[in-house]
Amino acid sequence: MCAVDKTAIGFLGLGAYVPERVLTNYDLEQMVDTSNDWIVTRTGIRERRICAPGEGAVAIATESARRALEDAKLAVDDIDLIICCTFTSETLCPSAACQVQRNLGATRPIPAFDLAAACSGFIYGCSVAASFIRSGVYRRVLVIGVDAISKFIDWSDRNTCVLFADGGGAAVLGQVEEGHGLLGQSLGADGSGADAIRLLSSGVADPFSATAMNGHRSTITMNGHDVFKFATRILGTAVEEALADAGQGLKAADLDLIIPHQANVRIIESAAKKLKLPMDRFVINIDKFGNTSAGTVPLAMNDARQDGRLKPGTLFAVVAFGGGLTYAASIWRW
Ligand code: ACO
Fold this sequence. Notes:
334 residues; alpha/beta; Peroxisomal Thiolase, Chain A, domain 1; 11 helices; 32% helix; binds acetyl coenzyme *A
């Protein structure tokens, strides 16, 4: 077992998957008191993907993982650890990660577990993966960021149903050429904001009462204003902290690309202002996919790679915030 250099841990492959069914703002106009104009101007979202009946986080995770392995030209048995970052799996036990391992046809007992850090999950997961690789415990780790939030939405609550959606992505992490890979990171959580976004799974807090059964306890509730305030403060700060961790005198202006969590385009605009960067430095696909929580960052990375913005040598930051309240940013050279 030999430790590898911090800067030499990077992405060997990427993949993403979204369900086929498209739900547009115009569809939502028929369901709740909202309008396409309000949703576009207040959030930047035009349409989102929603799981078909029988489809869920595990199916999205499995297909994303399959694509990431194909991109890395690796088989599942080449992987030493599977981390599935999600809070919307169909089951708390078994974990989504174990089901993905089975679905991919692993013939080795590859360790697998879920990681719950809401929308920051994928960046937390990459950090855990990098630690295992750096310490020499594992060589290649499959990290999946996925959420199927449509399963936990109250479709009569316009505060949440216009924002969230289903989708995900996956990455294989391992050793890369020196000078590439992970350069710095900042992970954090502010538990004092724990009540700002909540999903009380199926009345677990009070399982035997009638109110628990009938009181929308299995759908997401959110204080949008509190989350918005936290997000606009933390996105820029997290990137600055990760840049400081990277050292080498790196500044925001050196970043070729910022791949942020896609929760609200106004939150991204405020981060751009704080970092004094033009908006064209940010990857934005919220218009097509809405907020897929742990899925947004790998989905946006995959989009950026496909349209040629993320390529060998690109210096980029990923950054997210979410329920918890959690936040995470990391700096990489592709
Ligand atoms: N359609 C139409 N009107 C609406 C809607 C809607 N869907 N929702 C609210 N409104 C109305 C309000 O009632 C209000 O009307 P009023 O002025 O007559 O009182 C008006 O629009 C403005 O409402 P605000 O809540 O002030 O709207 P705001 O501009 O703050 O946007 C939003 C709300 C989009 C929720 C914003 O606060 C936000 O993006 N917050 C962050 C949410 C977020 O990022 N969540 C994800 C966390 S990630 C995770 O871990 C799962």
